[in-house]
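Let's practice the habit of predicting before peeking. Look at the sequence and jot down your guess about where helices and strands might fall. Then scroll down.
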Amino acid sequence: MLALDCFFPLANSAIFTNADGVARRRSSTKSTTRYFVEYAAFRGIETLFRIVPATWIDALGRLLGHFAYHLVTGIRNTVIRNCRIAWGDTLDDAALGTLAHDTFRTVGANLLGGVRCMLMSEQQIRKHVTIEGNDLLQAHLKVPGQSAILALAHMGNWEILARIASLLAPGVASGAFFRPLNNPYMNRMTMRRRQQSGTQLYSNKEGFSQSCTLLRAGGMLGILADQHAGNSGSLTPFFGRPTSCSPLVELLHRRTGAVVFYVSIKRTRPAHWQINITAHDPAIKITTQSVMKGVEQALSTSPCDGFWFHNRWKLPIKRPFELRQSRQSQESGGITKPWRYAFVGSTDPAIAQASTAAIEHLVRQQPDAEIFLINIPPTFAAENATFADSQISDLGKVLQQWDDAKSYPLDIVVYFCPDAATLGHHKIGSSPMAVGLCDHKNASLDIRITPPETAMDDPHTWWHYVRALGCSLPESSS
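Done guessing? Here is the structure:
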């Protein structure tokens, strides 16, 4: 299921329920044709892979990953950025580039290897897998009434990851959460294969109570614990950087008493993977923060096996300063790599004066972030803010220097000036998000806020801007 999502960019489609409660998908004739073509192409690839040795497929995956590293610059920058956040405190730029290259090649081998493993039985897959630490898990499950939650990360061969329960403890009732694929043909095929291996599939919306029943009966549940949870998650440090993390493992443990085990999967040689099982330290309380620490350790066993191709530490794309979490973490501390923001003011004295109050308010609303203020007069003091010495003309150079000053990258550049689209933030190697006032499409800005009807030297313009960024306003701004 996981590998299929990576091979085909499946479009979102509307879902509705018929009278029998069965989920259906509205799709146009064009979409249906495209879905069938995708399905046919995938089955054709499978047919070819049946006759090709697994080691050849592994070599092809690494070769395709090598070319992708050099050709897909945007994704390469995302991988380097993610690796810098996770391991930038121990690796220099050259080592991060090498790690990113290794990641492309290893993930290529893992993805194609996953397709090859879809055609194998559990018995055949075992010839390509070494398992360490499974004796601890099996001994735990033999105790009557004991159950286990497998906290998984996006790493290694994803087909092995999806069938992990039958490989570790055959005969034990097992389940996993399943997000239906948009392509109905692929979805039916994937669900049939998963259920044939004995895994019960739970939907994200209705699966909580079903998974509790499984765990109370002594079963085993696999959960991808490192997914970004959006507004429904808990703001928790992950590799020291705060981000939205799913509290599902913690909630299920509290509800059922199930013990948490961490699973890492790494490629050790062509067409061979090693699974490592470790138990959560019984001396440490199981919380979302401690679970994410365990996931960090699993990913760190083989960083190049991690799937770092999406922006794991992302800000909301529409309102970047509105981090609304339905659950708040009960723990403090653990943040060693705070968000880093750069605010760029206008060189026009009238605009600078009009925007200062809004800038100061935004700074004070972000007490846990590191903020660099450029072309902004030091008319206020804040512990988390650093002012540039004087007005800056070569903005790209200054931003790059500030980005390089820490092991973790600059996250966002916010322009408090009318000429944001021409100021050169795109020259920064870490590719931070850029925000500015703009009434037309401009590739230089990731977020474009439509200017109000008020003039640029009117304070109301900048209070409108701050509110549009997701920051609550003081009563005095109205």
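How did you do? The chain has a mean pLDDT of 87.
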